[in-house]
């Protein structure tokens, strides 16, 4: 089993993408981040944990508070590096599935 | 069902793994690779040659606006229907050396299947360059389309 967090799985979730957008401009505490969502606080915490584990977010201790900020380097790596390649294959495979599903229904009749 | 295509490329390794689960029975997924007419449809390319057998070879080319913009070829080392294809892949007229590809087809349920493509490159540098290529291509494509539209407006 690969226990390492999959960074693409992490950014596939809309709430997690929203969190990333939110902390792009400024560092925020978990509470401040959670106040932007209607989701329960523990759910937001879980999202933060996943984003931190795959290094898209970094934690910074400031007094008694922990601030989350974006790990621009990691995000850039994901956005610029593999994502276009992954997307190309994803589009290609979506097309494959579509072509073969059509083929299947045509050959049924 | 998880439809996302996953690409696993570890730092410093001259290989990558692409995985995808399909809402297709295994036989249909394999057919998409086996039949030239179907392969052409989803790859958006023209198959020049496809000898799907051990020590066979293949070649295809992609045209844009009547010009051949991409040509690739390779040799098939192993071809086991509904199980695996081992082949080389080489892009013509590029600096990229040939790469080795292991394609594995698996049945998940009667209606779903998984494809795993393991690609081995000559070096880490070539792998990383290839990963950056589709992005450059995307830009060129968009640029060409813009030119085309601009051309029609004249």
UniProtKB/TrEMBL annotation, chain A:
Keywords: DNA-binding, Transcription, Transcription regulation. One of its GO terms (molecular function) is DNA binding. InterPro entries: ArsR-like_HTH (IPR011991), HTH_ArsR_DNA-bd_dom (IPR001845), HTH_MetalResp_TranReg (IPR051081), WH-like_DNA-bd_sf (IPR036388), WH_DNA-bd_sf (IPR036390). SMART domains: HTH_ARSR (SM00418). SUPFAM superfamilies: Winged helix' DNA-binding domain. The keyword Transcription applies. Residues 1-90 form the HTH arsR-type domain. PANTHER family: TRANSCRIPTIONAL REGULATOR, ARSR FAMILY, TRANSCRIPTIONAL REPRESSOR SDPR. This is DNA-binding transcriptional regulator, ArsR family.
TrEMBL record, chain B:
InterPro entries: ASHA1/2-like_C, START-like_dom_sf. Belongs to the AHA1 family. Residues 23-150 form the Activator of Hsp90 ATPase homologue 1/2-like C-terminal domain. It comes from the Bacteria. Pfam families: AHSA1 (PF08327). This is Uncharacterized conserved protein YndB, AHSA1/START domain. It comes from Paenimyroides ummariense.
């Amino acid at each position: 089993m690969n226990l390492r967090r999959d960074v693409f799985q992490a950014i596939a979730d809309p709430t997690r993408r929203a969190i990333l957008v939110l902390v792009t401009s400024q560092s925020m505490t978990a509470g401040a981040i959670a106040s932007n969502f209607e989701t329960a606080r523990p759910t937001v915490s879980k999202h933060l944990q996943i984003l931190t584990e795959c290094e898209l977010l970094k934690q910074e201790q400031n007094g008694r508070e922990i601030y989350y900020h974006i790990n621009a380097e990691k995000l850039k790596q994901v956005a610029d590096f593999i994502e276009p390649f992954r997307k190309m294959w994803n589009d290609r495979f979506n097309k494959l599935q579509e072509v073969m599903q059509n083929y299947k229904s045509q050959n049924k009749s | 069902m998880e439809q996302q295509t996953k690409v696993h490329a570890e730092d410093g390794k001259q290989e990558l793994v692409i995985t995808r689960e399909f809402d297709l029975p295994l036989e249909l997924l394999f057919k998409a690779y086996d039949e030239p007419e179907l392969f052409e449809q989803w790859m958006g390319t023209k198959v020049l040659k496809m000898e799907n057998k051990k020590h066979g070879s293949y070649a295809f080319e992609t045209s844009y606006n009547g010009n051949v913009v991409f040509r690739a070829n390779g040799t098939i080392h192993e071809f086991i229907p509904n199980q695996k294809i081992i082949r080389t892949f080489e892009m013509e007229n590029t600096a990229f050396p040939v790469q080795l590809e292991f394609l594995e087809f698996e049945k998940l349920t009667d209606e779903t299947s998984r494809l795993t493509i393991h690609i081995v490159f000559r070096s880490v540098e070539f792998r990383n360059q290839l990963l950056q290529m589709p992005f450059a291509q995307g830009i060129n494509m968009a640029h060409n389309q813009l030119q085309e539209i601009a051309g029609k407006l004249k």
